[in-house]
Amino acid sequence: MSLAKIYLAKLYAKNFFITLLGLELFFLLIDYLQNQKNIPSSANLTVLYFYFQSFAALRITLALALIFGAIWSFIYLVRSNELTALESLGMSKKEAIKPFFLVSITAALIYMMLGFTKAGYYYDDARAILQNKHASERVQDLFFKYKNEFIYIKTLNPLSKSAENIKIVGVNENTVVYVVEAKEAIFENDSWTLKEAKTLFLDEAKEPYMTTSAQKELKTLEGFKPKILDNISQGGEGLNIVDAISAIWLLKDQKLSLEKIKAALFSAISMPLFAPFFILILGYHTPVASRGFMQAKFAAFWIFATLIGWGILTTLSKLSFYGPIGSYMPILAIASIGSYGYYLFRRIR
Predict the structure, then answer these.
(1) Same domain, 73 and 109
(2) Greater confidence, 345 or 131?
(3) 158 SS3 class
(4) Euclidean distance between the first and final Cα of the chain, in Å?
(5) Residue 158 belongs to what domain range?
(6) Are 70 and 12 contacting, i.e. CB atoms less than 8 angstroms apart?
(7) pTM surpassing 0.85?
(8) Average pLDDT in the 92-100 region?
(9) Quick one: pLDDT at residue 313?
(10) Which of 12, 148, 241, 333 is packed most tightly, with the most Cβ within 10 A?
(11) Is 258 a member of any domain?
(12) Residue 312, phi then psi, degrees to nearest 5
């Protein structure tokens, strides 16, 4: 990378981080004013709450900071005639835009990678602190079907990865084949281990029609992480990327509607990509020379366009999750923005 591109990348990165810090502080301040009565008096919990909320706010602030930082940087380069100077040194406008796109797409990909970690659940952790609940708040009366089994869990504890009072009913067509009961279960080695499990086998074809067996440990529900079970009743909205993919893979053959889980997954993937593609559009419409350049008009128009575009994308994401439109709509919207941005980028000389 040439020195000029390194300079542009550093300039943009600096403006991006300053903008991101300002937006994060703004959102945390608004959140504090809204929830100050419910924030715990404990200093440790307060610090944890704002730590979790700062990561959760990135869902909104990251894309806006990337675009606002680019607007700020482009205004500076045009106003100071640095774009003209770079062009006179042989750097085309297309080459000048590339560092902005590379920095923004890198930041977006890093954020997406956070969705594969526990950071994807920081919003839930912050809500738990705000509601004066432990992050391991138990889920009650969970019932679902997996393959040829109906599973009922009286109590699920996601943080300790344990469950109480589990009943599994195995069926063959319309006939009950067996019933498994256990007082306790632990999630370990990517499956649930039922402790002191009792199994009742039913066979109408031969005597004895009912037989029982007891096992100290019984493996079942392979791949069903506690967080996946916890979010089944919520439709998958709270799942991070990796658990959403796991849930779709596990439930794809169960004749269940996976549209909400898919919508949450596609939104988590598509939303961060809004900023890099939008920056290509912004770069195309940025003039090189400062003559006739109206800074205030340029900033106001593109800030307004950013907020409108981000608002439409967020609305599509919500509508796809709650059902009026297809779960693929966020991906299609981002693909359209990306295609248009790439088209404009190719037209730049």
Answers:
(1) yes
(2) 345
(3) coil
(4) 20
(5) 132-234
(6) yes
(7) no
(8) 93
(9) 92
(10) 12
(11) no
(12) -65, -45
- Per residue in 24-72, pLDDT (tens digit) is 999 999 988 888 888 888 888 888 889 989 988 998 899 999 999 999 9
Domain for residue 75, yes or no? yes
Q: Residue 230 has which token pair?
A: 């916890």
Q: In what order do the strands lie in the sheet with 191-202?
A: 139-146, 149-157, 162-172, 175-188, 191-202, 210-220
In a shared domain, residues 139 and 221: yes
9 and 102 within one domain: yes
For the chain, what's the residue count? 349
User: In this structure, are residues 160 and 140 in contact, taking their beta carbons and an 8 Å threshold?
Assistant: no
Give the list of residues 6+ apart from residue 217 with CB closer than 8 angstroms, or none.
193, 194, 195, 197
Cβ atoms within 10 Å, residue 132: 10
**Count of domains in the chain?**
2
pLDDT band at residue 135 using 50, 70 and 90 as cut-offs: very low
- Tell me how far apart the alpha carbons of residues 198 and 183 are, in angstroms, rounded to a whole number: 10
Map tokens 């890099």 to a residue: 276
Q: Higher-confidence residue: 97 or 229?
A: 97
Whether residue 156 is contained in a domain is answered as yes
- Same domain, yes or no: 136 and 108: no
